[in-house]
Fold these 4 entries.
Entry 1:
Amino acid sequence: MQAPKIPSFFKAPNAKNFSFKPRHYDQDKERREQLIKEEKSPLRFKRNKIKQTAQKGRKYRILFLIIVLSLLAYKLVIN
């Protein structure tokens, strides 16, 4: 238990706390924040590995076609 404090003319050793309560209420901002909170879903879906391998195969196929077409164009330009 602390001893009762006697009023003093000197500075207090502890800083006084300041609590600010805003007087302006922005309804649109509150609605946007609420929508953003609702959009964030705790559910996480696993990616389909079959789809990823198909995309990887597609990349190689396109690269192969570009190489073949560039070689054909080079052959036609040289001859």
Note: The two ends are 102 Å apart (CA to CA).
Entry 2:
Amino acid sequence: MNSFIEVDYSQKWKSTERIPGDIFLLSRDKTEGRIVCTLSDGLGSGVKANVLANLTASMGQKFTTSKMDIIKSAQIIMKTLPICKERKISYSTFTIVDINSNGKAGIIEYDNPGFILVRDNKIVQTDFTVIPLENRFPGRKEKLKHTELELKSEDRLIFFSDGVSQSGMGTAAFPLGWRRPDIENFILQQISQKRNISASELSKKIVGRALLNDIQKAKDDITCAAIYVRKPRKLLLLSGPPIDPDNDIHLVNNFVKFQGHKVICGGTTAQIISKGIDENIITNLKERDVDIPPSSEMEGADLVTEGILTLSKTADMLENKESWSTMKPNAVKKLITLFMNSDEVHFIIGTKINEAHQDPSIPVEIGLRRTIVNRIKKILEEKYLKKTTLEYL
């Protein structure tokens, strides 16, 4: 399967709580190309729900990623989960999605709203197997739903907690909550308005609408996860001149031939590319930031920035996902935005030493270019699940 599988989620906590009662976990195996994600909804809300949902989601991730059969994993979870004696229900519900590198997906659902599959801008109805569970409650039969399907390019798989489907319940517009046909129509509408809408944006749209149904005060934890199968979005980042000047032409050729977004970090690197493709560099004088050097523009490049200082600040901001989202527009925010909108990032790093960076007045933590780039690479892989490669010149 040559497609990239994008996974993201959005969440709003119950308005009266300071901690979510829904938990979403995601893991991506770089070697096997396998993705496992779990959404668990703890009974009620607040701390107790959070603990139980965390327990359920953690077990789901651990068992499933350990290559245990997904059905066996779910059955063990059900045996482990505590039960509410008064309401005669489990303390957590869950959805587990396991996708291999070929796009084959196994989905287990227990008491969460059913997932929605969109293909060719239509809702696809899927067959599922019912798996009876041991009778833990007299007079009540529990069951798991197991679905197997082959995901195709441009497919979208959406699943959510009942905070979405029950949003607006009791209001004049949604007396019984946000019913499934209405949710499906809303999803199709969002996709028709923006054909390549990302998993992140789609999940945010759904959660935003559910919150609107609740008149902007969530009556329950609202969580939605989305999976989008599509062509990978690639980014090339060049930084630093090659140690051998004869390799300048290799740097230029990589820049010209690359299919995707292109970023140049470093004045000397930009000059090499500018000379190689005969294009001028124009500094963006509108950017006024005392800490971040301004970005520049050059035909053929999506972004041109200063080198070490910008990369160092970018690494700091990437560590905290929330810190950069509220930043004013500058070179760092532009670079992070390009990272976030890419799936595969290829770094080509020149290893010629820049004497300016040996100045003892420059903070020690800035370090060398390769150290900073390796830090960014690690953060992108571990925190944002990006695929990265690194080449030195």
Note: The domain at 4-230 is CATH 3.60.40.10 (Phosphatase 2c; domain 1).
Entry 3:
Amino acid sequence: MSAKKDLIIHLAIFIFFLISVFTSCSTVFHQRNWGLTGEADVDGIPQKDYMQFATSLRFRTQDPESLYQQARHFQSINKHQLALSALEDTILADPKSARAYNAMGVSYDCLQDFARAVLAYKRALALDPDFADVYNNLGYSYFLQGKIDAAMDAFNEAIVRQPRNSKYRNNLALAYAKKGDYDKAFGEFSVAGPEAQAHYNIAQIYYQNGKFENARHHLDQATTIAPDRQLTKTGLLAAAALAEITGDREDSPSYLPAHQPPFLIEKD
């Protein structure tokens, strides 16, 4: 009887030991996963940023929404390798997440890994063939690679699904302009927004391509249609174009180099 009692006591101690070890390992894994131990930064991100983000999400390991939002956070601070890691976890938790593949394509584009970006976008479209933003982003990827015809095809697919989306129209206009078809570019700008804005947009493209007389013509049109609209920008750009035409840069105090237009290709 005494031997049996001793055996029960030893078994109880052993089980308690196992529970303690398991709990300890789980805690360490959670901390390592989030990089919350110690004071050092993790992958160049301050520890406090990890803490704040983890707390705000109430992160759950297998929750695809939390994983996806974690990835978007990393994208917002330009940490695309970390974003890709989180997106891989998102897809493991939800293999049919088209938006996770779309976001993965965005990060690959930002890392200039265009082959993987295109594959990610095509996987997203296989899961959701009507996901208009994916076509837009695929077009963006092709645009960056100099594949303008492919970019235009993708932008047009986005427009078929959302005909009034100004972002897609502006992007298609940029592709037309890249091919030198300024009339079609202006046509897309005109559909995308107000007429004065369309003149202003095409003027900037003309200016950036060294076609200063064309730029000044469209700036005059923009000013005539909407005298108070973007008056400062229009005036500065007109002065710059005039300075280029006359070769009188130094005597033109309003001269500023051309700025990138506000309608550059966007990504979601």
Note: Residues 48-112 form one domain.
Entry 4:
Amino acid sequence: MKKQPVQKREKKEYHGFAALIRDPQVIIAAILVLAALIAIFAPVGDREGITNLQFGLDLEGGSWIQLEFQADVVTVQTPVDINAVAQSMSKTLDCTVIPIDLGKVEVDKKFTEAELKSAAAAAGAVFIGCEPGVGSDTADSVKRILESKVNSLGTSDVKVNVLTNLNGVAQYVRVELAGVDMQEAQEIVGKQGLFEIRVQSVGDSTEHVLYGDSVISVQTPMMDPETGVWGVGFTLDDAGALALQQVCIETGATKNPAAHPINMYLDSEMVYSAPLSYELALSISKHPVNQLSASTGVGEEGKQKAQELEVHLRAGALPVEVEIAGSGSTSAALGDYFKIICVIAGIAALAAVAITVYLRYRVAAIVLPMVLTNVAEIVILLGISVFIQQLDLAAIAALIAVLGTGIDQLVIITDEVMHEGRVPSKVIYLKRLKRALLIIMTSAATVIIAMFPLIIMDLSTLKGFAIINILGILIGVLITRPAYGRIVMEILSKKN
């Protein structure tokens, strides 16, 4: 008896919708669209509106301020160590001078070119030139402090962009605050925020005690129920408390508090002046005191000053002085109008795309997958933007650009795989699809390379435009284009 050969079970092939729901590319695209919809519409926290999308000041209303650093970067040629040059110039100019390169130092105040040249010569260096701005380390510090100050307002809709030249010197920093009016924006980010405590010594003279960097914790502004005076309590570090004790003893503030009041300044403007209480003077004479409080006045004005002081105490002072070089604002009503216009523009773009595709192919079955593929890309992009990108007018323009370039690439796929209006065999179809995707990837790489400088140069709204464009290209090339190719193959096969 002969053994019957085992017959291999043929793998079942699926077609149409059954094939699509089993295709990995289609499944991934569907999952990402679903995840994006959840990210956009899922109720999270105390949000305002029906979505979790973050809108920039163009669409939300708010203010922008461009600050100019009041500092210079000096280029010198020196036979000695650059650190020694910086130290010497610091003593000559009576300011902070730090080395930022082998032949460059950063001077944290504005001086004439003649003064800088003289200071460099006194340090044994040859003055080459100077330009306004600061080095990268100071610029990063400014950005961090400004973000901390604005975040203390309880808003996350903020963008801080340092505008840096090609040589690495930053002259400006631009702050965009959605939902914040211009007056409040100028009070928070338009000043250096330098907090200082001084003690009255003899006559009108005062002795410096400490700056805000000695403050380690800050309390919420509170009003004294008995006097109605607003104030901010804060805690000094041990070094700051010791410095306060020493100056108070030296000036006589512990023995005769009335003649030696404690003055507190914010950006050289006095915000508090009062003598030590008897109990506090007695305590300071015996040991350092860490807990202090600054009163800012009564009523709404006192409350506003207390809140402003709290922000500066918490975030610290900027390492250099700044001046407002430009500003602007968008009203909330105008922002709502822009939102409506953007929605209309998006719908009009989709409609124009659908009509153009139909006129080209005269096949209604191709129009719907193209439009739905474009919509899927936009939804995925919006889902990602919830976490990484505000939507301003530049970002909306990038979304519409992604929609247009997306259709171009879908047309390339459709033209490549179709032959006289029919789909070829599966093997030939997949070869043509692979060739079309290769063409698209080459084109996408070119656009990404062109957009990349806009990201690393940190050019405010142009950065958002570039980010949305690059994300849209990557989503299309890696996810939606291959899925569309599989969908078109099933649709045309069924049609044939």
Note: The mean pLDDT is 80.
